Amino acid sequence: MIRRRSLNYTAVALLGLGLMTGAHGADRGTPREARALFDQAVKYMQANGPERSFAAFNNQKGKFVSKDLYVFVIDNQGTYHASGAAPESLVGLNVLGTTDAAGNPLFKDMIDTTARAGEGQVRYMWLNRKTNSVEPKVSYVGKVDKYVVGVGYFAPRSTAADAQKMLTRAIAYAKTEGIDKANTAFNDRHGVFVQNDLYVFAVDLASGKFSAMGMNPTLTGADAVGLADAEGHAIVKEMIDKTASGEEAVVDYVWRNPVTNAVEKKRSYVRREGGALIGVGYYQK
């Protein structure tokens, strides 16, 4: 019988220092390797049942721990039954109410995603033991009986090309579907317009308020024109002014990166479409 314990956010932050023990000094696992390990874990659990699978997944020297990849299992109540990262610390902990570094309820998202679709991907921010910094992470998660099985990988930082490609897709979507439907898509944290540390933001030009903010949709409706960066620059006003001619513009500023929780240089590419200013930015190293 697993002894249930609860875990608050502070405890997660502290525990995070030891979550990636197997990653220290090891190579990063790729998305393809994470997917392969996930598929292997699901098949193993379907064939061998929960208890035997938990023992295999919790074996840090076994076949279900590779590089910085490992298998984890939680139940529908958010309690850990297996984790190749730190079984002695995590098994029995209830993490249902836990949020990531950006405030997203990652474990609840995993449970909801698998309840809805059986299988999916969940993006969140988590401490990487190897780099000792908070980074975007993506987990493949799937439902096996009453359990959620998952394997996650740390995503790389996005580039200028990545930001430009996402903006192009966002503008095309707004043209085809209309700005209202586009704003809904931009605000979907699990959709195609939020990817690792990239996200789409939109400002209604008539009201000067955010109509979309993919990383934090709760900012929708908040004043944008009066927004200043960490150095006091009115960045949205500059974006609006620079796109007045109808051309795409580039605006540099400093902003807090929700992934690293540090103020970093950021560059955003912005364009106008459907009465809105639409932009995508990336953090410069």
Provide the fold topology:
Blueprint: E1 5-6, H1 9-15, H2 31-48, H3 50-57, E2 65-66, E3 69-75, E4 80-83, H4 87-90, E5 93-94, H5 106-117, E6 119-128, E7 133-144, E8 147-154, H6 160-177, H7 179-186, E9 194-195, E10 198-204, E11 209-213, H8 235-242, E12 249-257, E13 262-273, E14 276-283
Parallel strand pairs: 1-5
Antiparallel strand pairs: 2-3, 3-4, 3-8, 6-7, 7-8, 9-10, 10-11, 10-14, 12-13, 13-14
Helix pairs in contact: 2-3, 6-7
- Portion in strands: 25-35%
Low-confidence stretches: 8-26
**Individual helix count:** 8
Q: What is the 3D shape?
A: elongated
Mean pLDDT: 88
Structure notes:
- The protein has 285 residues and is an alpha+beta fold.
- 29% of the residues lie in helices and 32% in strands.
- The protein is built from 8 helices and 14 strands.
- The radius of gyration is 20 Å and the shape is elongated.
- The N and C termini lie far apart (48 Å).
Features:
8 helices, six-stranded antiparallel beta sheet, alpha+beta, single chain, 285 residues
Give a brief outline of the structure.
This protein has 285 residues and is of the alpha+beta class. Helices cover 29% and strands 32% of the residues.
